[in-house]
Amino acid sequence: MKKKSLWKVLSSAALAASILVPQVGFAEGAKPVTEENVSINGFVDYEELKKKLSQIEKSSNGLVQVESAGKTNQGRDIFTARVGHGDKVVLVQSEIHGNEKTGTVALLNILQYLGSSQSADAKRIRDELTIVAIPMMNADGSELDRRGNVMTWEEVQEQFPQLHNAQPTWNYYTRTMQGDDYAAAPGFDVNRDFNPDLNYVPKAEDFPGKSSTPGWYITPESQTVRDVYKGLQEEFGNVEVFLDLHHQNFYKIEGTDEDVTMSISADFVPDPSSPEGSKYSQYAENYRFDFSRQLNVALYDALQEKGNSVFTNISLYDQDLDLPGTALGSFALNGSGVVLFEVKGQTHNYGQKMKGQLVKTVETGVMGIINGVADGSVYDLNPEEYNEIPNRVPIR
């Protein structure tokens, strides 16, 4: 799909207010808001995203390039914002789940900084890296503040006639969940629609699938991210780093009463060179688990350096997973170092209450990785330190 410049998508729009989030502090262990219909007005919606990206592109004087890489199922643009001209690529996406919004704000803050700052650090990053951000991957779900996209199984079958007699996928939502009316507007968990075979064409025998098997690239949202990834591979030879920004439920640091602020991970598929991962053996030469662990250590260290327990309550996400249908699993098998970010709570849990803290946590972690790759320090970290990051346990 030919990419379109944002200037061809948007009419000129001024944006007077700064997008930077004030550094607001919150009490340690603050609990989620429980009222129904919690306001999410403080987060960025699709129309605001277009305006903010337009403003960032204009004010950067060419340092940030914004394009439409594709369309959601309902026809909204999936924007990429690119900054830097280095030979190492960092691809980072937010809102693959439309009710996980803090990463979008964090990415806009980072893009504004890298597109406007003339500091030595910002210049070094632009010289060493090419950073490509997808700030709102699932814009249709974002507009409804829900996890899934908006797409029916019948629409999938129209696009892929070979699936006429296939069963709907296991990740197809058709009932009301957590107040989201998928019965009226079905959709898919897009983060189960990836496949390590980047040229995969859907086959009826691969449906309905399950969590431990690859996805299918049947949604336009996953197809767009796949195409961005492939395009960067063609241009640079490899996508060095892939970061995926999410939210999770509520956990404690194992052995403590401290609430987890964010869980992180490098582990989404078994090592292709191991007996457990033998089904992925064709990807063994690409897989860089130690590098993914180094990236996670860089993230963890960046947050520990804050010296504030709210920001340093970081845990490992569940380990020993087999999730090739996720973007993280698929891209790890294709040679990228990968990092999962999972801040606590969904937007319907907190609304705007903890926005400042959670956005800053994500922003600090992303910049810790970017700085470590740009100055090369991440490659000297001991990957075994990853195993020293505390585990999480559910709040009961």
Automatic annotation (TrEMBL):
Q: Which residues form the Peptidase M14 domain?
A: 42-396
The signal peptide, as residue positions, is 1-27
- Pfam families, per the entry: Peptidase_M14 (PF00246)
**Which cofactors are required for activity?**
Zn(2+)
SUPFAM superfamilies registered for this protein in UniProt = Zn-dependent exopeptidases (SSF53187)
Q: Quick one: a GO biological-process term for this protein?
A: proteolysis
Q: Which UniProt keywords apply?
A: Hydrolase, Metalloprotease, Protease, Signal, Zinc
Which GO MF terms does the UniProt record name?
A: metallocarboxypeptidase activity; zinc ion binding
Q: Cellular component terms, GO, for this chain's entry?
A: extracellular space
UniProt keyword annotation of Ribosomal protein present: no
Does the entry feature the keyword Cell inner membrane, yes or no?
no
Family in the record: Belongs to the peptidase M14 family.
* Name of this protein: Peptidase M14
